[in-house]
């Protein structure tokens, strides 16, 4: 990795951590420059605008999500084991050390839902990709005959997605001790309903 790429990567790691605590809007080039000990002009050379910085933070988060959640799960056997690994890794994701304020996508979803622009577009694209990954894993489970042939895999993806985002909120705000257990009970119901019936 070239020096400029190393610097950019280190800056984005700090920006991602900060965004989990103050939101994308709170990560200004000036504030980030102070956090990483760079000049504003030096940081501006990497991103050119606050909007580009927000998109870069989301890109960094998406890359880390794939490395943390998706890639390890795809090493598991096709079908139900892979879908379970995606869910397990996703629950672990929001506790990752590099996101001290919790899941960046939860924060971004709340912040960007009514703000059109490149950051929202990038966020929506990442979420659609994730829903497609979940649905695709369920389709493979149907092919492997782990799940029933009439399963609505898009509905399964929607339900898993909704439970996981609910878990992220509940774990941080309402029920830190019980949220994961309750989310897992809900996932087990979805998987039990999806299985081939004897």
Molecular structure report:
The chain is mainly alpha-helical and about 200 residues long. Helix content is about 75%, strand content about 0%. The protein is built from nine helices and no strands. It has helices spanning about 5-25, 30-35, 40-45, 50-75, 80-95, 105-110, 120-145, 155-175, 180-195. Helix 2 (about 30-35) crosses helix 3 (about 40-45). It is elongated. The mean pLDDT is about 90.
What is this structure, in a nutshell?
The chain has about 200 residues and is mostly helical.
Features:
mainly alpha, elongated, 9 helices, 198 residues
Give the SSE string.
HHHHHHHHH
Report the strand count: 0
Number of helices: 9
Helix content: over 70%
Query: Which range does the strand content fall in?
Result: under 5%
**For the residues shown, what is the average pLDDT?**
92
Oligomeric description of these chains: single chain
Largest sheet properties: none
Radius of gyration: 19 Å
- State the shape: elongated
Q: Which class best fits the helix and strand makeup?
A: mainly alpha
Gap from first CA to last CA: 54 Å
User: Low-confidence spans: pLDDT under 50, at least 5 residues?
Assistant: none
Topology record:
Blueprint: H1 3-26, H2 29-36, H3 40-47, H4 50-73, H5 80-93, H6 104-112, H7 118-143, H8 153-173, H9 179-194
